[in-house]
Amino acid sequence: MTNSYLCVYCWRVIPIENLFCELVSSPESTWLDPPKVAGTSKRIRVRDWRPLPQWRRWLGETPADPFESSDPNKPRLYCKCGEPISPVAKVRSDQSLAIRIAGAQNSGKTFFIATILDSLRQMRPVPIAAWGIGDTDTRFKEISDALLVQGQRLNTTRKQFGERYAWAIVEGEGMARSKPYPLLAVHDMAGEDWKNLGRDCPDAIKRYLGLHGDLILILDGATIADDLGLDPKDAWDEQPRPGDSGAMDLTILGHIRDLWGSRQIYKKVKLALVITKADLLWGRYPKEGDNVGAFVETHQQDQSMLENLLIDSKRGDLLVIANRFLDYRIFATSSLGFFPKQCDIINNKLRRKPRPSGTILPLLWLLGIELDGSSQETG
User: Fold this and answer.
1) pLDDT in tens, 226-235
2) What SS3 class is residue 345?
3) What is d(CA 297, CA 292) in angstroms, rounded to the nearest whole number?
4) Beta bridge pairs of residue 43
5) Among 3.40.50, 3.30.1120, 3.90.1570, 3.40.1350, what is the CATH number of 94-367?
6) Measured torsion, CA atoms of residues 173, 213, 250, 286, in degrees rounded to the nearest 10
């Protein structure tokens, strides 16, 4: 079976024979459609490289996949977009390729991702680990350190059509699995880009949303609080996005639906509806006098209460759409793990270290991993 690889820059899934290899000394006549990348030598497709002497000199007659060679000097492989391909981005035909994340502007997507990765590093025992593909870890560490170590506010994602990050999910020590886990694939676009996606959708976004796998939709807890008639402000975010009865979330799902083109795709995708900034709701929802238990921090989150929360905040239409998916679950999370007060802020920075609550649970649910009593998030 021919191996294929996912390019985490343009989100193409490419058979090994269509990748490019850099051969500095190759004769000019052997180059076929090399990617046009400034400052690089010409490249040849793997399928055209096999007949050349260099193939046998580097790899022998086999293997068919250069990544499977034990030669430490084997050449790098590249996508047609010109970016390098990582061997850990190998995909199988029976594999769910990626877990994708979408959400409105200022909904807390980037902070949510940072706390997922931080929680994975600190969980004991370790059910899974995340390995950054390409330069993902280097680039994302700057964001993670700013948020979790230095306590800085993060500027809203402004780069047009966002940043790309991807992590390979692997079993923890002592764990065994017959199929590879999907990648955690993030195309971190600004909320405004999600809003306008239907007008002019770049090919990379179409490929990203078209990857076979599940979906995390981020729901801004501050807008939910506002729609419930609660004060959505805290000392850390004094200008949250106003409530919109879930209109922006429905717009994003509508764009995704249009790009999928078929309702049958819903039946193959699990959907995690993730409420961020849930600390705004702790002890405040339902309101006093309501005959429902108080909304509190818990890892055993009651789905009926969370559904009522979405209905009460005028988001019942989201549940109608969620029912079209293979399965769905609602999660209430807090990347900070506490309701920030003015005493928690010094020189516009958090003085308290975040203790994320619930952020790892959506990923574990999508991966089919259940936490036992000894596994928990730690700060």
Assistant:
1) 999 999 888 8
2) strand
3) 15
4) 22
5) 3.40.50
6) -30
